[in-house]
Specification:
Blueprint: H1 2-25, H2 28-37, H3 57-84
Biased composition (Basic residues): 60-85
Region (Disordered): 50-85
Length: 85
C-alpha cells in the first residue's frame, strides 16, 4: 500500500514540475497566441474554411437526443454495478 502512495506522490510531483516548466520556459508569444486563439486554433491552417454550425433543427435535436440516451445508459450501468457491488 505504501508503494501505491509513493507512486501517487511522485506522479503528482512530476505533474507539478511539468506545469511549472511550461509556465516558466515557454516563450511569451506562444502563451499569448494560445490565450488569444484558443486551445486548438493553431493546429489548423489559417486558409481552411470554417464549417458553419448546424442549422437544421431536426439534426440538432437528434444529436441532443442521442447524447441523452447515451448518458441514461451510462447512468443505468453505473447504478446496476453499484447495486451489485
Amino acid at each position: 500500500m505504501s508503494v501505491v502512495i509513493s507512486v501517487a506522490i511522485i506522479a503528482v510531483a512530476f505533474g507539478a514540475a511539468a506545469t511549472w516548466l511550461i509556465a516558466t520556459r515557454l516563450p511569451v508569444e506562444w502563451i499569448e497566441r494560445g490565450r488569444n486563439d484558443g486551445r486548438y486554433a493553431a493546429l489548423s491552417a489559417a486558409d481552411e474554411p470554417i464549417e458553419a454550425p448546424e442549422t437544421d433543427p431536426r439534426r440538432v435535436q437528434a444529436r441532443t437526443h442521442a447524447r441523452r440516451v447515451r448518458r441514461a445508459r451510462v447512468r443505468a450501468t453505473h447504478t446496476r454495478s453499484a447495486k451489485l457491488g
